[in-house]
Amino acid sequence: MSMDWPFSPWTTLAGGMLIGLSAALTAVLLGRIAGISGIVGNLLQPATWRRSGEWHWRLAFVLGLLAAPLVWQIFGPLPAMALPSDPLVIISAGLLVGYGTRLGSGCTSGHGVCGLARLSPRSLVAVLTFMATGMLTVSVMRHVPGWLE
Amino acid sequence: MRAVAAFTSGLVFGLGLLLAGMTDPARVQGFLDVFGSWDPTLAFVMVGAICTGLLPFAWANRRDTSLLGMSMELPSGRKPDSRLVAGAAIFGIGWGLAGLCPGPAVVNLAVFRFETWLFVIAMLAGMLLHARTVRRASRN
After folding, report:
1. Whole-model pTM?
2. Does B11 touch chain A (CB under 8 A)?
């Protein structure tokens, strides 16, 4: 199952362009930000359920995300995926990602892709902040002796 | 029509994440591991995405309605505040711990691995926790 996928700057760049295209489609056609934490977070809110126009497109977007690996498999095997195995690490990480993205109004897609493409200073600050704490976390985990892993 | 547009956008987004390698937490952690065996290629994801988005977003920012007739709801605030920074800092710690951000986590659900489901359930719990604290704060 762990196939060596030929990742290169070019496939990575092409993947990024598809993500940018999706964000552009969402903004131009629907007038909304393709931020995954915002889309998923709003689907959880009762206030969204009362307005069909607000949850229909979000649900369709999430279904599109879920369909991606299935469509991918028509053409070839899925790229490798290696998650940490400690359930405690996974649960803490999930809680922090869920809470943090809602408090900070966005994640890698909403701030990192849409926000930066819109030249928003707020998003630039958010991106620099989560990159810094992400790098710090991985560095502590991997290079401070006696820590996780 | 709107649902078709949203589904297509989600599909293209997911395929982009897979092609870019963002769905592999080990690669994401390699990108964040600046003091170890740093793998900088994921920076190209942002370069590609931002360059592709620049012109369409500039156009969308000037419109009042979208092409499918929906109201334009792109954020207007530009000034960073402490909530933004605190939230982004918390998110970054979680992102580093597991190597997953919300988009790849949702895409990976379709692979049916216990770890991804556990991550997404915890992420949804974190989102609900935030919604609760906001509601409580607004009641006081």
Report:
1. 0.93
2. yes
